UniProtKB/TrEMBL annotation:
PANTHER family associated with the record: OXIDOREDUCTASE TDA3-RELATED, SARCOSINE DEHYDROGENASE-RELATED
A biological-process GO annotation: retrograde transport, endosome to Golgi
Protein name (database record): FAD dependent oxidoreductase domain-containing protein
Region Disordered: start-end pairs: 43-78
Length: 459
């Protein structure tokens, strides 16, 4: 492609994948703001969807209330879904292996270039798997003297990164490192095993990272339009190329001429591209402010809850926990916990499919009972996360699953998808964005092989 060729590039989706695509399109050697128009369309006008009303509204203020990277009101809606409510774990041991090394390295480059340590909480960290036995919350009692082996092997609710965990029986029966002092290692810890070190594991604050990618892309010429819900991708008469994108904004229908369309709509992708197998499941999480900053660990837990502990919300339940009562026998749960450098810890629970995917992320429904489950479970193994902590946010999002799919869709010229990134979306976003920029400007991915991410394998 000649550098002077006119391109009208439309990105659908203001999550981390869409924002990373916008960033890397503007960093491609062929990009010129004079000949290449890049527009990012995000359906929502609010980043508070999927959070309770008493949740913190701007996480940037936690580390520095006067930061120049406070939320841009014009960008409300950016990172409003899973990209703003994820854990933010990065790892060379993530999947798919064909794009992970590229993306992990790009994360470090971005942090060095744009002060990511201060701007979006980038740091190297440890990842560990722990087997624990929860203490009963105040006001609850148990008839059991100990948990049976049969009970301990039961795990009805799985963590998001379950594919990376070691079987409980294979865990090393050793103590935790000394700096993991915010975990009750004397009463709660049963077994510990390291999974990742600062050599191969890192983290970011996903909402701040996504917002930064959007801002940096905008500074290079990308136009960001929020409240623009795409209703159709329009093709030529023969269907062999993209011609425009139609979207609704403030009750009006508008059409945007488009030569290249990148669909990065997360779990909403299949509504525009029904043949691309992207599915959705809801995930709840909480953010807890700890008395003092806790050491840099991501914990993949297996917690045995004793009888008498508050019963976790059943997968298909909806609404109040009032009818649940205490457990009659022990149960194993697997919340994940991520310590952050801003003095908070993030914890998430299992997914559910109780409530269907709404029209936009602004309408995501939070089941507070599921958030309360997470709070009581992590509080059962850590006073910093329980008795001495302060809950800052209760939230939910829809996790895009089924992929990731990255690349051209069928034989339609100018149509590209980047969606279905599972729980590794934040990790793989920079690599995805760079590959998309190469597909749009060079006609093919160059920095990594698409391999199993190629949509042609699913269509």
């Amino acid at each position: 492609m000649s550098e002077g060729s006119q391109k009208d590039i439309t990105i659908i989706g203001g999550g981390i994948i869409g924002c990373s695509a916008a960033y890397y399109l503007t960093r491609h050697p062929s990009y010129s703001p004079e000949t290449h128009r890049v527009t990012l369309l995000e359906a929502s006008t609010s980043s508070s969807g999927g959070r309770t009303k008493d949740s913190i509204s701007d996480p940037a203020t936690l580390a520095d209330p006067n930061t120049k990277w406070k939320r841009n009101p014009a960008h409300d809606g950016i990172a409003g879904g899973a990209s703003g409510k994820a854990g933010g774990l990065l790892a060379l041991w993530a999947f798919p292996s064909n794009i992970v090394p590229l993306s992990f390295g790009l994360h470090e480059e971005l942090a060095k270039e744009h002060d990511g340590e201060r701007r979006w909480g980038y740091r190297r960290c440890y990842a560990s798997q722990v087997e624990c036995r929860a203490r009963l919350p105040p006001g609850f009692s148990s008839d059991e003297s100990k948990i049976t082996a049969a009970d301990a092997e039961t795990a009805p609710s799985k963590g998001l990164h379950k594919d990376h965990k070691t079987a409980i029986k294979a865990l090393k029966k050793i103590g935790a490192p000394e700096d993991l002092d915010w975990l009750d290692t004397e009463q709660a810890l049963v077994a510990y095993e390291g999974m990742g070190t600062p050599n191969n594991t890192a983290q970011v604050h996903p909402e701040l990272f996504t917002r930064s990618m959007a801002q940096l892309a905008e500074e290079k010429g990308v136009k960001i339009v929020t409240g623009a819900r795409v209703t159709a991708i329009n093709y030529s008469k023969g269907g062999d190329s993209v011609e425009s994108v139609t979207y609704e904004k403030e009750g009006n229908c508008e059409t945007l001429p488009t030569t290249d369309c990148v669909v990065a709509a997360g779990p909403w992708t299949s509504r525009l591209l029904p043949n691309v197998p992207v599915t959705a499941s809801r995930a709840h999480s909480v953010v807890i402010q700890t008395p003092t900053p806790v050491s840099a660990y991501a914990l993949f837990t297996s917690i045995a809850l004793p009888s008498g502990f508050p019963t976790p919300t059943p997968e298909k339940a909806r609404g109040s926990k009032a009818a649940q009562g205490p457990l009659k026998r022990s149960q194993v749960v697997e919340p994940e916990i991520y310590a952050r450098p801003d003095g908070t810890a993030y914890a998430c629970g299992p997914t559910d499919q109780t409530v269907k995917l709404p029209l936009t992320n602004a309408e995501v429904e939070v089941d507070e009972a599921r958030c309360d489950d997470i709070i009581s479970q992590v509080g059962g193994i850590s006073d910093e996360l329980g008795r001495d902590g302060k809950v800052l946010a209760k939230q939910a999002c829809y996790l895009p699953q089924g992929g990731p799919w990255i690349g051209p869709v069928g034989n339609t010229r100018g149509l590209t998808v980047a969606a279905g990134h599972t729980c590794w979306g934040i990790q793989n976003a920079p690599g995805t964005g760079k590959l998309l920029s190469e597909i749009v400007f060079d006609g093919a991915a160059k920095s990594a092989r698409l391999g199993g991410c190629d949509p042609s394998r699913a269509l």
